[in-house]
Amino acid sequence: MRMHRRQFLAMAGLSALAGIPAAARAGGLTHIAAIAPAGGTVIDPTLLVAGSAESAAGRWSTVLAPALAQGLGSPSPLATHLTSGLDGVTGANQFDTQTVPDGATALLVPGAALVASLAGDPRAHYDFGRWVPLLFSLVSPIVVGRADLHRTLRDLVRDRPIRVAVSSDHGIELATVMAMAIFGFRPIPVTGFATPQEALTALRDGKVDVAQISDPMPPQALDALLAPLEQAGATPLFTLTDNVRATVHGKPVPSFAERFNQERGRPPAGLLYDAWKIVAAAASLDIGLMLPMLTPPEQVAGWRHAVGLASSQGALDTLKNDAGRALVSGPDCGRYLHDMTGEITAVLMLRRWLAVHMAEWRLG
């Protein structure tokens, strides 16, 4: 006898219910916590670090591992597992494919891993939009360079190439490449800069025209970093976001939207700008602390309590605004994750734009 699909699903559902305790069935299966082992205590909490010890995630792990221990009831700093690379792609892949959502393992991931996923990096096999955010450290990357952002009538009919220092085609500097295109330039990504210091040296020496400073730092350190660049004619052009209001020599650096409005007399708009916004939001994530999708609510609450306790007791004070960071925790992270995930139309526009231009970039 042939079994219809609906009958099959009904029988499968009854089989599953047979394995669930009666008390759970009586209460209704509205939450995964009703059928998954869960409790207020996180057993053997672990930090999976998306990056090497020298990466942003690696440096953060040395602060967060002891800071979260008390709130999670751990007698010693949390166990940490480092992965390879600086952009976090390897660790993000491992987290999404191998981590059981039992609340025991949280991921420390940099914004570079999110940018790689949005851009369609073939190495990225994860969907960060499904993760449960616990803590975000947000920054406002600064775009520095030699570029006349004011467009004249003559600029409308002539080619304006500009060289942008990037770590890779899908690197965290992608937002700067796109920003230059929105301003009317023809961006030429110059790859191979493994560290921001290498990119800034190339900018100082005239090998590139624009570079991105993603590392957060206090105003005094930023002034010192920019001094030799300013002597070489490179100045701060804008910040990618206004998460943290950056100042140089006591004067605020305008955000991209503010600078565009100054130069064009109107706010930026259009499909490419919509795509740029999600990349810029992802690039402005210094580090994120995440749990897997379907983590039981009790374990989510336990981690959030630990984050709140660490923050209230001053364990994270050195990482706050005076160091160029803004910390956001708990449910407040939701809107920022939405900005980083974006609408599907914006992601498709980003992929289409990259497909058109990447071939010409590789040809030089």
From TrEMBL:
Residues 1-26 form the signal peptide. Keywords: Signal. It comes from the Bacteria. This is Tripartite-type tricarboxylate transporter receptor subunit TctC.
